[in-house]
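Subgroup meeting minutes
Present: P.N., E.W., G.H.
Scribe: E.W.

1. P.N. recapped why we're keeping a running log of single-chain structure predictions: easier to compare across weeks, and new members can see raw inputs and outputs side by side.
2. G.H. added today's entry (642 aa).
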Amino acid sequence: MIRGGYRGKVIRVNLTTGDINTEDLPDEKIVRQYIGCFGLGLWYLTKELPAGVAPLEPENPLIFLNGPLTGTRAPCPTNCTLTTLNADTGFTAGRAHTHGWFGPYLAMAGYDGIIITGASNNWVYLLIDDNKIELCDAAKFIGKDTHETEDLIKKDHEIATKVGAGMSVAAIGPGGENMVAGAIIENDKNHSFSHSGVGTIMGSKRLKAIAVRGTGSIAVSDADKLANISREWTKRSNTLGARGLLEVAAAELHPEFKWGGGVQKSDYVGVIELVGLSAKNWSVNSLPGFGEGWSKQKLTPRHCYGCQIGCACDVEIIEGNYKGAKVTLSGGGENIEGAASIVGAGASGDPGEALYLTDLYDRLGLETSTIGCSLAVAFEAYEKGILTKNDTDGLELKWGDAKTIETLLRRIAHREGRFANMLADGPKIAGQRVGLPEASVHIKGSGMNLHDWRRAWGVLLGQIVGGSCGWPGPGADCWAPDPDAGYKEKTDPLSPNGKGEEVAKTTILKMWNDSNGTCWFATWGVPNGLKDSVNAVAASVGWDDFSPEEALKVGHRVLTLERIFNVAHGLTAEDDINVSPRITDPAPADAGPAAGKSIAPYIDGMVRDYYQNVGWDRKTGKPLRSTLKKLGLEEYADFLWR
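Output recorded in log:
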């Protein structure tokens, strides 16, 4: 019986009619099978998305869901996941996680999730203020960026604009309003739902923002037990297996910040030494000077609700052309590579350049790998003489020209001009339009997690077989080993041997972690992280018999249901195997031990090994009947194998 953790209510909004209702969560059997966040969101999507609906049609739902640990005392209890039909691929389940304060405030308001369908005739925003739920006029916010929208909505409701001060606002910028590919939904200034074109879908519904204020408490089944589990779990996540991971993550953004006693070298060195840069459309792995001076700027870590890590930060730039600019950055460096290094920027000797461009993407409401890779293939086409100034509306596309990058980015966000529109529909389409499709960096048409993973084949395979952008199975050959998946040491990053099994095991574990309500940084690489999260869910909900084996079965079930959904919408094995040529090109000469090596000869076998290890047919990639039976998904057997 559910005795805590869950709030038991979901808000349902029909933007076409304006109707707003609340309803109970599904019965406990379903909840226990899928838990929450992506797992339960995927269950809703599979049941509710009508056949034959395109991502930007009103019937495609936006499904926001927390997990049973969101907003509790568990470490980093911030995960809220948005599930929908992916607007960037058009045929896979879309998944976007956010952190910060949005999910916890939604839980404090008394709800586990929000399901939004339809499309409004006029621009609106959704206000959730404890028991008060209403659609409000958003006309005056149109054209405003994500940060401006957040501040203005808070001001209207007499809330301080300080992040975390009583209200969380998740808003789209001009990119979402104009339905640009890869548009994001930014919340709390340092965070966003940032994959699968979710902001594009929100724009198609004329929904400018969702504002949430919650003042209630979150009851759990056994508060003392959860507190004890969380205390020990927090210590481990700070000082044991995750330390190496977090130290690298720290080096990406604020290298002199201390993590568990470790102090970083300086600037972006940790990432450059490990995987290099996604630079100049993956043609090189380095940009001399990239990252220099970042650590000398005025930096303030920004912790999410209940978070001991604080991977996000605000930076005030104190020197160079961008002196005085205040930028808000999320954790990780992928965003910076998509905004800057992918088009050769950030190596000018101006320490603020890459940081400013990254912040600009967030304010305009655009995901950097999607539009960044669109820009990058155009810059390469210009360099090769395929494009001229006559094609680019007068712009000279030189690698690293920050002013031109900013001009073009603003044009894309507003769909201003023929050339900007050529690039506004994502990297695969952009590559086709500029005459260089073989050089486009993308996964199934969508932006990918941007480091140059040609130096870590396990991570790259996880990206290739992943159903949606972002982090699917991480493998165990790059940032950290994963003891809970059976990997106490890192594997060889440039060997194809065992990669299918490695990605299968880490993906199943990741799907569990993506469903329970905590940030991945609380579990990834942490010894006993699986046991800690399982025990925390048991203490929160009251499932005393919940076990790690059942949790991994949840992860396997969610992964398999995602595959069923994707197959139903047209995904085939060929979509996993026939990847963008640029991703399988030999790594560049400056790629260290990976230089000249290519994953291309091994992709087919690695993908099929992955299928076999997750219980899918090796030839077609369809889940086998025996796997469906084991996971309680028999109802889909005849559909898949008729």
